[in-house]
Amino acid sequence: MTLWNQLQLLDSLYLEQVDQLYDEAFPMEIRQYLSQWIESHDWESVASNVSLATLRFHELLNQLDEHYSRLNLGNNFLLQHNIRKIKRNLQEHFQEDPVHMAMIIASTLNEERKILETALSTQDKGGSSQGSFLMEQQNQLSNKVNNLKTSVQVNHLKMDLFFFIFSVEGEMNCQITKEIQQEEMALRQMFVGLSMKRENVIKEIAKALTVAEQIQLSLVSEELPEWKKRQQMACIGGPPNACLDQLQSWFTAVAECLQQIRQQLKKIQELVQKFTYNNDPLTLGKSQLDEQALSLFKNLLLNSLVVERQPCMPTHPQRPLVIKTGIQFTVKIRSLVKLPELNCQLKIKVSIDKCRKFNILGTFSKVLNLEESSGCLAAEFRHLVRCEKQTDITTPLIISEELHILHFETQLIQPELCVDLSITSLPIVVISHVNQLPSAWGSILWYNILCSEPHNLTFFLNPPPVKWEQLSKVLSWQFSSVTKRALNSEQLRTLADKLLGHEAQGDPEGLINWNTFCKMSPNERGLPFWLWIDGILDLIKRHLLNIWNDGYIIGFLSKDRERALLSGKLPGTFLLHFSETCRDGGITITWVEYSQDGEPKTHSVKPYTKTDLASISLPNVICSYTLTAAEKIPVNPLIYLYPDIPKDDAFGRYYTSLDDLSEKLTETTDVNNQLQKMEIDKPIKPYLDRRIISVSDE
């Protein structure tokens, strides 16, 4: 069964999360129509190769054409129209940048897998997880909203009945006062009945407003902040955030009820104008109810705007909140109150925080309207660009620590109502060069781990420390967000020793300072911890994704642990771990052999970097690695992948023949020059002129 078909079987909570992954640039219809074809390709690899991305883009268009032709046989005009529109949108967005499309598909598939894994793990736990508890809370809130809607509708029916009774009794009253003035008792009884009806109407409306106020308090003070916190975590690699559809349905239902109550209060005013008396319940309580209903409606609107998708460059979808000057970025605003009278009435204007050294270019105002694909009331800014401007403003912070926010403002004007609405993005970091991206992303991680206040732009003047328990989870997310495998407990323990020291024993409460994480090296080799991790992440994404997902890379290992693992293993047993000295990421191979007296001895290969692995894959290195000693036959010392897996069993499916290697090079630029520089029978640069690779004795 395809991944897409498995997702269709999940509960609505998870289907809403899937819905959140798609937008108009790459709509869900494509995923539905071409699910098998999409899942048959490795989009991570496609995204790293311009030529292959271009090929897959045109194949996708051809697949849509074929689907269109099949629909033509059935005369399905509407679907044909949708496919033509989808194809035009794809060409508009990705014709010049097919790599971007591949990156979107790869990222979306990864998120879908995470959603499926989360759903399955929740089912395995028998529904006793925190997710089940949250589901129960949501069901309770939904019941409250439904009860409110029912009570308001019942009140509406009572109001209509009351109008009818009043009209009939009013006519009888005229006849009685004219013809039988002596029957005062009957008039008094009629008056008492009328007063009781009026009092009951006021009580029912007051009760409905009390329920609405309780629900609104829960939405504004609990549900919405929790969603925003989940969004923060999702931005830095955490679990996908739940879709806003549920929140929108609650907000909208409460807003509709409040509007109905306000209409009922207007009808009451009409009654008062027709007939009233001293101590009339309608006049005594109405003004207070008017104020309460209007206040609740205003407060709901003031909290209704959200940033559905935080600022993000399309070229780096997995690293939102980092914006480069001169590069387009996108952001999406949504209203949780979806009333027909709001459609096309709210014009959202975007601006950057005041007194900063950047301007925004592009379309900086958009109208909130109903989207065809999702049905939500939203405005998406797709072509915003940051540019620098001349300023005398100085700041003590370096560029990767300077935080900015985007402001979104609008005004709603209706009869008896004028509300200024606004929302801000999470803090962003603006960089001027792509090499500042790793440091900027480190700042985004640190801020969102520790702070939920969007206006704390001076956070890095005195950044607080973070607990290892918090940081370890986020570090693991960095790997799971770009691969299928998070960090295991042993890998995290090794990283804890680097940051806290071995004596801390990976204490969850251990504190790590900002400078230790992103500025200073934890050892004498002069490489800041986060920049080292970021280089490894990029190395995995570009060259090691498959074998990392397979679990063949141990990853992080101290020298003592390395020797302990290999000691006692068969000669030729090797393991793969990351270098601690390569700024841009490096991976090395360490194997064990034994001396004549049985003493184990380990050897480590000089680390392979991105430059090396761009020419030959690591599985091919392991396959063809040759160690030559004087007067000895060249031999490959790499026999078993730790703990005891024959190397061909582990890596055989990834070996590339010489013909395939040449074909791979053909897909890159300047192929002939590369082939002239590279001797195919040699292992790897910079050791192309010999079969021996230098090793270190430990």
Automatic annotation (TrEMBL):
GO terms for biological process: anatomical structure morphogenesis; cell surface receptor signaling pathway via JAK-STAT; defense response to virus; epithelium development; negative regulation of developmental process; regulation of apoptotic process; type I interferon-mediated signaling pathway; type II interferon-mediated signaling pathway. It comes from the Eukaryota. InterPro entries: p53-like_TF_DNA-bd_sf (IPR008967), SH2 (IPR000980), SH2_dom_sf (IPR036860), STAT (IPR001217), STAT_linker (IPR048988), STAT_N_sf (IPR036535), STAT_TF_alpha (IPR013800), STAT_TF_CC (IPR015988). It holds the Pfam family STAT_linker. Its main location: cytoplasm. Keywords: Acetylation, Activator, ADP-ribosylation, Coiled coil, Cytoplasm, DNA-binding, Isopeptide bond, Methylation, Nucleus, Phosphoprotein, SH2 domain, Transcription, Transcription regulation, Ubl conjugation. One of its GO terms (cellular component) is cytoplasm. It is found in: Cytoplasm; Nucleus. The keyword Lipoprotein does not apply. SUPFAM superfamilies: p53-like transcription factors (SSF49417), SH2 domain (SSF55550), STAT (SSF47655), Transcription factor STAT-4 N-domain (SSF48092). GO terms for molecular function: DNA binding; DNA-binding transcription factor activity, RNA polymerase II-specific. Gene3D superfamilies: EF-hand, SH2 domain, STAT transcription factor, all-alpha domain, STAT transcription factor, DNA-binding domain, STAT transcription factor, N-terminal domain. The keyword Coiled coil applies. Residues 548-684 form the SH2 domain. Belongs to the transcription factor STAT family. This is Signal transducer and activator of transcription. It comes from Cyprinus carpio carpio. The lineage of its organism: Eukaryota, Metazoa, Chordata, Craniata, Vertebrata.
